[in-house]
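Study this pair:
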Amino acid sequence: MTNEKYELAKKIIKENDDIADFTDGCSDVAIKKAEHLLNLKFDGVYLDFLLTFGAGNFGSQEIYGIIHDDFEQSSVPDSIWFTLTERKEQNLPSHLLVIHDTTVGELYCLDFSNTNASNEPKVVSYILGVELNEQVYKLVADDFGEFLLNLVSQELE
């Protein structure tokens, strides 16, 4: 499914390759392994992002994805490694996938339990240190495409 905001974000990233530093996509094998480990299914625009870009930076903004298929010996911006780490250390719920760290105690996550009309996970905030029963899950973007477009647009301002 084509998402206009995501396609525009991709175009912006490709046109500004001097500030874009991505892993150039990841393999289907790595994606399947990640889905199995997390018990989540990637599709739509986030799947396209993983296949096209993998993970990386646009200017100073890190966008988490898949670097390689060794999710135990990895680091940021590996979304799978970071999500598994946060599940252990911060009790991150299993329906969330971390895609961005604001560096001020707030993580932006794909919420696989909360999808939009196109069945894309919405992007919500998760506040570190807040008990699960007190988490608000503030809506950040209607889907990954909107989130990515907002992030790259802000970086260019």
